[in-house]
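Morning run. Coffee first, then this:
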Amino acid sequence: MPTALKYRIGLVQMSCSPDPDANLDKAADRVREAARAGARIICLPELFRAQYFCQREDIALFDLAEPIPGPSTERLAAVAREEHVVVIASLFERRAAGLYHNTAVTIEADGTLAGMYRKMHIPDDPLYYEKFYFTPGDLGFRSEETSFGRVGTLVCWDQWYPEGARITALQGANVLFYPTAIGWHPAEKEEYGTAQYDAWQTIQRAHAIANGVYVGAVNRVGWENGDIRGNRVEGPGLEFWGGSFIADPFGRIVAKAPHDREDILIAEVDPKALEEQRRHWPFLRDRRIDAYAPIVQRFIDPPLSSKVDVK
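And here it is:
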């Protein structure tokens, strides 16, 4: 019989100001608030220390990056120790001169670094110019054992890829966390906004169902132009849509944040419920691992028909 204890997870949906230090202060305060509401594992949004700077390509913005361990991990480790909680934080990592990653760290309840994950899938779209800043991750997909349970973290664009969720779940993660920075383009919201959010939520609920795990997707909220330390940036900006949520292993939404304000979500993780879900829907049992080799190909070109005249 499953013997693991229930525990609560927390998601911090927050807005981000042009002041990185103020954002770190806010994040630390929100982690404390979530801890005092009963959360034992608490996840912050993607790149919470700054407004979303990838709306433009600016070499000066590499100065925002920091080493790991570094100032952010030191500050959050102190909070983790004091509140006896696990903290998951997405940071702009300076690995070496000219080498930077979008990295999520897992800080244990004693303040030690339990693990880190470097974002694997890097987007390059209008106002999301992440390939300019981030080298794709080279640590692979990972799960980490913590004081309260085994969890895995993926970051934003990773959430659209079932392969990452599956591999992380196969390593024993009971919860998949997705720290995120995603929003509406002003010109697109009226026509596509509802469908975009629904797709974002649906794909992650599908990860919960297909893998029999809990999913916590935590987004930032508010309008941003990527302003940093008073450096006003011209342009349309992005409206980050919030809407953070926690789904159970059947894909049901057990907690959801609004689209227009900050919030802290708390939900219970029950390993016994996860076990029961997988017994009734045994997707892992029925996987045909002998037939999946083609998944590592970029694309499978259909064979040319013998009836096609190519002359």
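The first helix runs from residue 20 to 36. Good start to the day.
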